[in-house]
Amino acid sequence: MTRITIVGPCAAGKSTLAKNLQARGYAAEDCAQEHSGVQAMWQRITHPDLLVYLDANIETINRRRGVNWEAAYLAVMNQRLAHARAHAHLYLDTNALTPEQVCDRAITFLEATGILPTP
To answer: Does residue 117 lie within any of the structural domains?
Structure first.
């Protein structure tokens, strides 16, 4: 079974995508890499076969979270996520996507690379 880890800034949709992929038979989990200064934490904790990076801008994050964070807060998260983003197999900008669209795009990518769900 292919282990899929999902990283990205807060409110990018990591936990939602993980749950949606799990419901479809994929071994997916989200990793809170954005809260750690350890650049390779995602590798050490989850040991994924495939890394998905979900992205969101500060306006989307603020809307989804109901907060008013400054761009500097996202800049810190992006710095913490730089290693993961550089190693991601799939990058998705989620700003204009619904959770279903994010999941559909992830599954399209997984199927195209030969990764199928486990029944």
So the answer is: no
